[in-house]
Amino acid sequence: MTENKQELTHEVLEELKSEFGDKIVEAEVKRKTRLRIKINGENVFDIADYLKNKLDFDHLSSIASVDYPETFEVVYHIWSYPRKILIQVNALVDKESARIKSLTPLWKSADWHEREVYDMMGIIFEGHPNLKRIFLPEDFKGYPLRKDFKIGPKPWYKED
Amino acid sequence: MDEEIRTEEFILNIGPQHPSTHGVTRLVTRLSGETVLEIEPVIGYLHRGLEKIGENKTYEKFLPLTDRMDYISSMTNNHAYVLAVEELLGIEVPARAEYLRVTLSELQRIANHLMFIAAFGADLGAWTIMMYGFREREMVLDLMSMLTGQRLLYNFMRVGGLKEDVPLGWVSKVREFLKALPEKLEDYKAYFYNNEIFLDRVEGVGILKAKDAINMGVTGPNLRAAGVAYDVRKDDPYSYYDRFDFDVITEKEGDTFSRFNVRFNEIYESLKIVKQGIEALPEGEVIAKVPRIIKPPAGEAYSRVEAPKGELAFYIVSDGKTDKPYRVKVRGPSFCNLSSFPYYAVGDIIPDVIANFASIDIVLGEVDR
Amino acid sequence: MLENILYGASGVENGLIRGIVGVIATLLFVSLNVLFLIWLERKIIARIHVRYGPNRAGRYGMLQPIADMIKLLTKESIVPKDADKITYNTAPWVAFLFALLPAAAIGIATGLISTNISVGLLYIVAVSSLSTIAVIMAGWGSNNKYSLLGAMRTAAQSLSYEMPLVLSMIGIVAIVGSLNTQNIVAAQSHAWLGIIPKWFIFYQPLAFVVFFSAVVAEMGRIPFDLQESESELVAGFHTEYGGMKFAMFMFAEYTHLVVGSALVVTLFFGGWYLPVVSGIFANMGYINYIVQIAIFVAKMYVIIFILIWIRGTLTRTRINKMLSFGWKTLLPLALINIVITGVILSL
After folding, report:
1. Full residue range of the structural domain in which residue B319 is found
2. Chains with ≥3 CB–CB distances under 8 Å to A
3. What number is the ipTM of this complex?
4. How far apart are CA C218 and CA C260, in angstroms?
């Protein structure tokens, strides 16, 4: 059974590689149900579309974002109910523009996840219907999860 | 006098301070009379920036903060977090600790579901059931406080195992509890399943279809109520869940009643697991050898558990240089369950929306983090 | 003299003194019952909930209502900024007044009635339906959306339950041939075989079911407490009220409970008559009155207990179901009851 699982995971990876070739920067099977690929931000919609509609990865579990020194990474975790495999897609996002395509046309659940990433990391999701802050007040300045965000005494509070 | 009688839609803010918002959330509803035309949840009132705090605390010191996310079921929060750190470190957890983790998580699930039933009753105007739910939940809390010294925020799991072994006599107390609870649950059955008014309020209200539920990222009992037999414990087992025998409860309709039903019946499944857990409890250590300063090698880990409210996941990135996580991301089930709520709640009248909202069982500490 | 005033004997039947005494007596009777009821309801509900209920102020917490009253009366009176001041401030008094008025035409013993008008029932029905106006005033005057929704619900509720309420009484009126409450009770004073009372619940069981449901709805108690359902509308029409004004609404609510159950006892449970007991004390003057009052109050509290029990047991229904229950179930049943009664009486 476990052997089988491992093979299945590899199969998915092979299929992805043959479809997208060198658009996949990096790929590995982390463990028997975990797959990790690294891609460039501009390809994310195509790959997500393929994952959802061809490979049955139907549950967008979460969207995270990481601020690395050279680049942003938006990390998608997508689970497949039929295959029982979790794929982790690390999409590299340029620090200057901080833009990536929204996945809301594919998953409704992407809505709030993307708003959260926007709120916390300031990455703009193109095509998102309602991209505004979700946790923080609308007039909040800065994006707290960026590493250059200074935690001062109440940064949102302005003394008149 | 041929002036026309005018009607107007109006906006009603349900919350942030409202008896049935289960914390502080705001549902901006557009109403036409009693019919709800649009709902927009507004969240963030309880936002404490836990993810940012996580980046500034050591791995161990973040653990107590996980309690404060879903404060109704803090044990499973602990569980998800330590699993992620253990994945980063590559630690093998002793068997006794794993069995206890499963047992404790299931006890927590029972407490959570009883709390759900209590709150659900209160929202429907059945205060008696609310009191009953709290009374039975107290039994679990007694067990937990005997074990951890805390009633709500346990902070009991550790990276590599548990804080300490169970005290003398705890296991026999659990056995007593396993006998006592099913008898009490009979009262609930009598109350809910024969109550014309209750059934009338919940059946066919707020229907969420399986296809939509998947697309909206709904997980946990809400998804199973729609007919998708997805349970992280079965589909992607963690700890020792693959050694336990239990069923995944599903319903077909996906309405408020199914959501209630799934949770109610899950209590019985959890009792089964707890029973197996304490029967099979092996002797031995409860914590593995873990370095004093936790400094995992560079890498990422994504751990998922089936929390009582759905799929709870921690995504942790370590840069390998410090003893603090580079990034902590929490995927809370309540967050996604709430985000899907507007899609299937519109078109109902206010009482139905309230019943529906109660049935998705969210906790705002976890939505806002 | 005193006897004449109290029992409405000849001469002072409609005198001024009798009127004043009647008003004070009614007010006193209702107030004392309300105070006791607040404690009783909390205690019984607590027992159903597996709690203790009030147990600090006085023996068994019996002074709790008084403590509550003092607290509420000493609170600051707050008026919302955008409220319609006049409507907002008068609404509690109107509610209080219209809750109390029906009590004037309900007697608690033979002749012991504030105003013994011949169209008693008609008066009760007319006046009690006016309390809806107070609720709408409160809902509109508070300038709060929850209050408004609560008021609208009350209006809808009262419209749809007033009808079956009135129609279910018609059977009794037809049997007795009078609208006077004294006559209605007197008509129930006999017994079959000396022990089985000739109460109208046995003549009119269907009417009783309709009447009782409608009364519960009119009182706005669970399962029909939609006007102030706390999980939906926070507190409904009295969301914005506090202190004294809230106390007035509270008082009005419990007055409804007292008056409603008194009406049920009067119409269906033979008022102050109990088969064997009433016969024993029939010719004993003052003692007879005390016994009659005791019987009446005891019956009233049985009904109240049942109402509290219902509150502790059921969940809240929803507004659309409630209205359709009123129009589609209770109203036809009430009409059927009238037809059946008419046919039997004409035989």
Report:
1. 49-367
2. B
3. 0.84
4. 9
